[in-house]
Amino acid sequence: MKKNNKPQKVRAISIEKILNAAQDEFILQGYKGATVQSIADSAGLPKANVLYYFKNKENIYHAVLEQTLNMWDEGIGDIEAHDGPKVAIEKFIRAKVAMSFNNPKASKIYAMEIIQGAQHLKDFARTYQRQWVREKAKIFKCWIDNGEMKQVDPVSLIFLIWSTTQHYADFDSQILTIMNRADYEDDDIEHVTNFLTDFILRGCGLKQ
Amino acid sequence: MKKNNKPQKVRAISIEKILNAAQDEFILQGYKGATVQSIADSAGLPKANVLYYFKNKENIYHAVLEQTLNMWDEGIGDIEAHDGPKVAIEKFIRAKVAMSFNNPKASKIYAMEIIQGAQHLKDFARTYQRQWVREKAKIFKCWIDNGEMKQVDPVSLIFLIWSTTQHYADFDSQILTIMNRADYEDDDIEHVTNFLTDFILRGCGLKQ
DNA sequence: GTCTATATGCTGATAGAC
DNA sequence: GTCTATCAGCATATAGAC
Fold first, then answer.
1. Which chain D nucleotides are covered by protein, judged by CB under 7 A?
2. Is residue A172 in some structural domain?
3. Which of A137, A142, A150, B89 has the highest CB neighbour count under 10 A?
């Protein structure tokens, strides 16, 4: 049935199935709690096939993490000097909220890694993220010096935007339970984006 | 040596040692990854003693969670109508930041539970927290209707304060790495409290 | 209360038939 | 490439000596 049907395609499909299943299992059970068997079951493949594609559990986890970091990278949005503070911050918040609602699993994997000490992500933070934060902080400093926005600690501001936007992905179960809802709806992205944009721009002295 | 030295005291001390060790292990290794042996080693007790006091691993975890929820309850601070919005919000932020910096482990255990689907905390959220949020939202609504603060969605505001304050506990490894620091210092509590209080009060239209 | 020894079950990983 | 069978190792939990 499935034989000789574009051999590379089977491989690609299996790998994607495995990575999706692994993401779910690692979130729900943790690294140690997720078993190769449970990942295989969730992917609808025999355990041996999973180990055929990835050799061992650690490799699966690394692949999931790599996927996650790529999403972080793409979803981070950007803060560009020529936009001016108001437009730049709005763009940035919009990108982060969209990423939270569209890729909550990536956000959760990432959050658990950090909470558990960031063993696998220390290098990423030490090089890439530290550099990114410093660059963007410089842009904020320029805007502040030019009187384009209020005197607000840029690094704290970046952490505030990260935490408020990611919260909707990482803590979705708490938020939904408290609001007595089963799932997020399309409106929620807009509502959250508008609330955060308004509130944060006001905090930066960029609105009324 | 240790024998007949206030038998109840030995029990209390052992239990506290075990709970502290368990907290560390559950954070670093997850529920499944933390073994009774590793908890015992970290507590400086033989494995059998740990199981003598708690019977099984799940009971240890429940005890850690209970401790965590008690801290959440004590550390939540309060929002009281008679304080007026400015003082009430400032008190609330101060309490949450203090709790984050003083009990980062409790915050992390709590965060991991929520991220993993809040299996053990759904009831807590459904009853206690939902009620708490609704009560406090009502107080905010009064203030807004009386023109004491800007029209800001109260529930979103509570989530924003939770996320920004907890972030410093849960994501400490990322924050410290990015800022190229080894540990938080005493000044940091003050700095973060001041930044968040200023910023959030401004967001609520309660400052310049 | 403290600790050793052990039973039982599950997990990661491999070997090898198809 | 796919899948079955299997092994060696480890984890929980208990039994029972001290």
1. 1-5, 10-16
2. yes
3. B89
Q: What is the pLDDT of residues B95-116, one digit of tens each?
A: 999 999 999 999 999 999 999 9
Closest chain B residue to the Cα of A28, Cα to Cα: B116
CA dist A9 and A40 (Å) reads 19
Q: Same domain for B94 and B47?
A: no
B138 in the same domain as B108: yes
Q: What is the pLDDT of residues A20-33, one digit of tens each?
A: 999 999 999 999 99
Is there contact between A15 and strand D, defined as CB under 7 Å from any strand atom?
Answer: no
A186 and A112, same structural domain?
yes
CB proximity B41–strand C (7 Å threshold) = no
Q: How far is the C-alpha of B123 from the C-alpha of A143, rounded, in Å? A: 47
Q: Is the CB of A114 less than 8 angstroms away from the CB of B174?
A: yes
Distances (CA, A) of A9 to A4, A44, A64, B101, B111: 10, 17, 20, 50, 39
User: Nearest CA to CA, how far is B91 from chain A (Å)?
Assistant: 18
- Against a cut of 0.70, is the pTM above it? yes
